[in-house]
User: Which sequence fits this backbone?
């Protein structure tokens, strides 16, 4: 098992999870974060830190697509170890459904 970031992170990108990660396995895209599944040690400290509840175990059903997104983009996006500033409108997108199809960006973060 490993943890993954779900589409709930898209356009929220709160980053509270980043600095609690003991192995620095978060990677930053333009509008979301992902977890590198081979680096995650399954400690779970990031899960309760996420205000958007976007971090879950990869064993939860229906998450194959997002597990693949985490794996793919962890190899393409830059590693992030220090929390940045979330988008000004992050709260506006918290809890919105269907964010992947509407907003997902393949671009790396800053």
Assistant:
């Amino acid at each position: 098992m490993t943890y993954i970031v779900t589409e709930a992170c898209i356009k929220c990108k709160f980053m509270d999870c980043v600095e609690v990660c003991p192995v620095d396995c978060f990677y930053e895209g333009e509008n979301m974060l992902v977890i590198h599944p081979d680096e995650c040690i399954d400690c779970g400290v990031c899960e309760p830190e996420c205000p958007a509840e976007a971090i879950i175990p990869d064993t939860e059903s229906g998450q194959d697509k997002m597990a693949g997104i985490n794996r793919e983009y962890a190899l393409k996006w830059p590693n992030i170890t220090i929390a940045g500033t979330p988008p000004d409108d992050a709260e506006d997108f918290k809890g919105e459904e269907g964010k992947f199809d509407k907003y997902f960006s393949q671009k790396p973060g800053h």
